[in-house]
Each structure stands twice: as structure tokens, then as C-alpha cells.
Amino acid sequence: MTREPVIHFSSLLDRAALEHLKSKTQLPSFSHYDVWLYEHAVGFTVAKMMNADLLQTTQNALIQAMESGQAYDKFVKNLKPYLMAQGWWGESVMTDPVDGVAKTVQLGSTRRLRVIFQTNMATAYAAGQWARVQEDKADFPYLKYIASTAEQKRASHMTYYGKIWRVDDPIWQSIFPPNGYGCQCTVRQLNEKQALRERGEDIDRQPEKFTERQKANHAKGIIDDGTDDIQWVDFTNPRTGQTVKIPFDVTPTFAHNHAARLIDVQMLAEQRHGKSFIRELADTLISYLKKKKQPLELTEGGVFASSANLINEGRLLYETHITVMNEAIKQGKPHEGIMEIMRHEGVELGGEILTYSQNPEVATELAESLQVFPTAWLQKSNEMGRVLVADSMGRAWHYFPDLSNKRFINMMKNKPQDFANGAEAFQWAFMGRKMAFQQGDSMMLNNLNHNATRMISTQIHEFTHRLQKVLPELNDYFVRLWHEKTANDKIQTLREMTGNQRYRANEIGKRDDFPNPYYGKMYGDEDDPLPLEMMTMIFEALLGGDIKRYQELARKPDFLYFGLALLVRYQP
Questions:
Q1: Cβ(457)–Cβ(549) under 8 Å?
Q2: How many CB atoms lie within 10 A of CB 143?
């Protein structure tokens, strides 16, 4: 009796594989041929799963399984009841969107869940392995195809057993394992000395497996297996009519490299054809992927309907413009890359921003720092009022007062230091019958202890607090994400979370796994937490010009993608 193939995954978390699995954009499909070849490297799909919530839940279950090292049995135990409750189980009748014909189809089953689990895990680990191969190829420039670990090896893949090609050989774009459902083949990365030694050992063990040319090359210290003995066939996708050449012994939907080919292709294209070409490619690519995503967006109500949608949108934007970001990061200016993405996506930046100060130069400097924001956002700020700015040697802060609060007005007139450290710098604006400070204005205090870069970064942070009042809908998206991330967390003091005694005893928050505990800070309580630092910290990291803040954010890319999507797509 033929046994089901079993994939044994390491209990050590492969972070590259995990990021690959997380990075995939959900692409609904009726047939496994609807998402084709390299689309699988950037898209998460399950044939017949046309519902966005089902796709998201299934992808999340796989991510959780990889993060926690779950075996298949635990995965199916967690996911199967949900799929059955949603009606995605057993046979059903569905209309094929290609020909409009109603067909009896197989939805969920224990066997299908096994295939979903094994295929997604195997391809994600392959993508993680390919990432490491690329990192090490200068020292280990060869890959050797290693025989399957399955008890019953499929004869079709034996053609490749023991073959060695350079990492950059195009053959790996078609046969980097897995090469079919349940395939347990793999590769081993070698330096030149190791490649020659292993080839010699293989020739001694099985001389009949090697041609005279391979043996002669080895004797000369050459590894060159070529691809003349690989049989290529034309395969026509029955859904799209597209015909491609693939190795005859590789399952058609697996005949591609499983890694993040979107990034690799763009970087190679820029090297060979220049930045103007890559811009054209990026435009075409984003339009194409959005077209593929359209059923998902319609199902879920668009990009703003869920945090997951926003994260996926931001990931797509980032990967589409990866060469721009790589260059900006290389120069230590990731914020310039973010701004270039915004411009390329049609977002107008900068413009007039109403600021004032006792020192006009301070107001001008703030206005210059804020030119990184979308013009439409600055205009909304102007419609509400102005920003009163001053310098101090203490902690920077922002406050948006309500002038109907007479107690606050009297305090600012008489004892501003009782309101906050540094508030005396604003006292002049509250003096006299006709105050300079008006309803809709807000106060921003700079910290002169910061260097120039940190000063600008902090100004971006504090102005974002103003935007929370000016654009409450925008802030609501961040609050929603905060609630989702901290649903099972308890309230702690920032001192407890960080060990930093600089924080006051009453500063609290929830930890989650934020890039920095300050992201989780609360200004309220459990019932009304008022989490106001998620938005400020993300925009500071993306636009503030502080490379350390950006690197901190980039270690948790979902937050980066979330903020990027809103910078590009949100219009007040």
C-alpha cells in the first residue's frame, strides 16, 4: 500500500521561511492553474477557496503552525472545525468563473488539508533556504541536488540526484525543490573544493550514473553538468492558454523557484536595464497583482476593511519598489525611499503648513521638517488651525487644548509650569485679551538636547499627535491594529516592560510584540485605552530620518507595511 508522504520540519524557527509565508498576498482561485508559476511565490491561494476570510484564516493557521512548531495533526485539529462551520467542507456545487458553468467540486477534506499544510510549509522552507543560498553564494557558489528522503522515491526526480550546478545557473529557477506535491528532495550548498570532492566520491560509488564528459571535467577540476539531458516540454495552462517550457518530470505548478522572485527579478532588471525600466516594470507589476487581488478586495470591502488588507497592500507597495528602498537604505536614508514610493504612487507631498512661534526661525524649521507628509494631510491641519512651537531643554511633547477649558487658560496665563515642564515657553501666546493662541491650534515643544536628526524625527512624531485629532479616521486604523495585537495582553507599566526608570510610574501600556514597548503605550484604561503612540511611532520611523528607528520598525515588517499603506492610500 502506498503511504502518504510525511514532511518532517525542524523545530527551530526558520525566520526567512516565516517571513515568506507571511508576505504572501491572498489570491482567490477556482483552479490551481488560476495562480500560475511565479505568482505562487508572492500569492497565497487554495483552489476553490474564493472567500477572503477563509483564505486569511487558513494562511494565519499555517503561520501559527510554523511559529509554534505545530505538527500536521494539531494544524488540522485547529482549522478543520472552522472550515466545516463555514461550509467549506465536502463536495459542493460552484460556478466556474472562467466558463460560467456550475460544477461539482471538492472543498475541504482531511486529505486536502494535508496537501495544503505540506505544500505551503515545504515551499516556505524552500524560499527561506533560497534566501540563505543567495547570502552565502560568494563563498559557496554551487548547489547539489539531494535525493528525496521519502521511503518510496519518485523515479521522475531521480534525473537530478547528485547533479551540481552553480547557484546562479538558470536551471534552479525551474527545479529548485520541492518539484511536486509531497516532494522531499532538497539541495546542499557547496564551495568549489567540496563540490569536486563530492563529485569524485559519487563517481567512485556509481560510475554508471555519470557521462564520460562529466568524468573528464572532474579530472580537470571542473564542475559543469549542463542541461542537455533534461527533457523540456511545452505545457499549456488549461485556464489561461499560456504555454511555457518546463522540465517534463516537474509538476507544472511547481516548475518555478519558490522564493520571493518579485524582489530578485526587479533587482536583476535594474542592474541590466536601469531605473527607468524598473519603474515601468513596477507600474505593470502592481497593476497586474491588483487585478489578481480584485475579487479579494471586493469581498472584504477594500484595502481599509481590515488590518490584514492594509498590511498586504503595504507589502505589495514595498516589494514593488524594493530597488528604491534598497538604495535608500544603503545610503542610510530610508525615509527618502518611503517618500519616493509615495510620489511614484501619485501622492503629493509638502506644501504650506501653518506654524508660529516667538522665534520665527523655529516655526520655519518645523514647517520644513513637515514637508514629508502628504499635502492633503497638511491642508487638513491648516483647516483646523496652526501649530505653536517652542524650544526647550526638556522632554518633547505635543498638546491639543480645548479653549473652553477655562482652568487650562488660567493655568497657562499664571502658572504654566503646573501644566507641564516647558509649558512656560508658550505662556506669551495666552496673554492679553486677544490671545495669539486660538481654538484649533496645538502646542509642540522641541527638545534641544536632541541632535539635528533626532530633532526632526521627534517633530514628525509630535506632529502626528496633531494628525490624530485632525484625521480621526486615520488614527482609528491604528487603534484597531493595537486592539488586535494586544487582545490577550495585560496592562503593565513602561518601567516594567523596559526596565527604564526614565518613564513615570503612571505610564502604562500593553507589550504584544511591538518593535518597541512604547508602541503599546496607553493614555486611558482597560475600558478606554487611548493607544496614541502606535501611529506616532510608525510615522516617525518611516518619515523621521532616524535610521535606528527605521531599523527597529523593519524588524517587525507588518507594522512597516501597515504604515506605508496608509501613507500612500489614505486620503482625507
A1: yes
A2: 25
